[in-house]
């Protein structure tokens, strides 16, 4: 299970302020905390970043990779900012991950960047016409994205399919649709397609004390069903990931398994 | 999900002392705490109880049912103690559950008691010859127990199949065998067979701080795979049960779902 540390998001006030002031301190502290908790990639979510996104993404990638020996997940809708980030990303720690393309024609050109820079890329299974209704529609869209990836020269093993986790508070039936989609995505290719979710979306809008409880149990069920990776808080999810790996026999039990 | 409150076991020092002194206080306090935390049956585990088991079980059943409006799970290898418990059990709060019969010929007569007293009964999928090797062997034994139940006049809907949870610290591969057995047991009849586990067995021998973590995640995966009931600590597992019911859509989401 690859945990992509999620805490460097422009939505968080402290992170937003650090981005605005170009203050590396908080950015590097958070990246290091995620790394120490087991994240092996760090998500850099700079939002739409319409003004100055290129320079901001480059600054973020450099700040993160100065602090931790980790690849970065370049998380923005601004294609130019993604390309700028790819140009400075230090691949000695692993290849970057672009977040994301989809089945919306406006998002196709992002695939060109993945091919050009030999980057991995997330394919979010939504199209231009609104949200997918169920697991089957997510699969149909995934197949479109896979075809497009091959057309653009992106190997399928570099594509992470994202079924789009919706908030349980308003879209309860999608919680199971997404689990089913994770199972079905794996069947779309051999070797199985890689998968990723934005985990904390599940508990968006839920009371604060409820959020980690829902996040953890949802993560456990997704892992059990074969999820490859998650954009998530490693500090919160490390324990879950290690325990599910023990139960499913992916790692050998030791009394100290939580500390490893 | 029926949680059968597990805390009234002779293995716990405080409970053993209360049993010896016939001190209802601690017994009723624990039963009430389990009930308040959501247990809807209380396990009364008096051990082998070779001396005075009949009177002890009757005292336990009465003490529990004075404190909470709950049926009791009669948990002992002593058949006479079980019959004594059945004689005083107040069925107005639900029918009792005998723990347990198995595929060991010595345990067959327990089925007679279930038929005679119209009680529910647990069928532990072990035979005389040691532990089952995998899910398939558990199923083969389950089929034997089901045939025996019908022979003794116990309806299959009164039989709870127990796949025998083993400790993960020494029998790691059985963690998945048991999950698979829970899925397979349901296929053995239509309507699906009911299932039960002794949940905390999974973490027997693990460090104290690790136990609730393994218990909770294992419980979540078992529930996801269709488990009907568990002998477990309701105070520890209520949150898990409610959250999995939300994720799987068995109950409708509300911000206050953990308090309901």
List the helices and strands and how they pair.
2 copies of one chain form a homodimer.
Chain A: E1 2-9, H1 13-21, H2 24-36, E2 41-45, H3 53-67, E3 72-75, H4 79-88, E4 97-103, H5 109-116, E5 120-127, H6 135-151, E6 159-162, H7 172-186, E7 194-198, H8 211-224, E8 229-232, H9 234-247
Parallel strand pairs in A: 1-2, 1-8, 2-3, 3-4, 4-5, 5-6, 6-7, 7-8
Helix pairs in contact in A: 1-2, 2-3, 3-4, 6-7, 8-9
- Name the helix and strand elements of chain A from N-terminus to C-terminus, one letter apiece: EHHEHEHEHEHEHEHEH
The assembly state of the depicted protein chains is homodimer
Catalogue the unreliable spans of chain A: none
- SS summary, helix count of chain A: 9
Largest interface: A-B, 29 and 29 residues
Euclidean distance between termini CA atoms of chain A = 14 Å
The coarse overall form of chain A would be: globular
Instruction: Give a short account of the largest sheet of chain A.
Output: 8 strands, parallel, barrel
For the secondary structure, the number of strands of chain A is 8
Task: List the defining traits of the structure above.
homodimer; about 260 residues; alpha/beta; eight-stranded parallel β-barrel; 9 helices
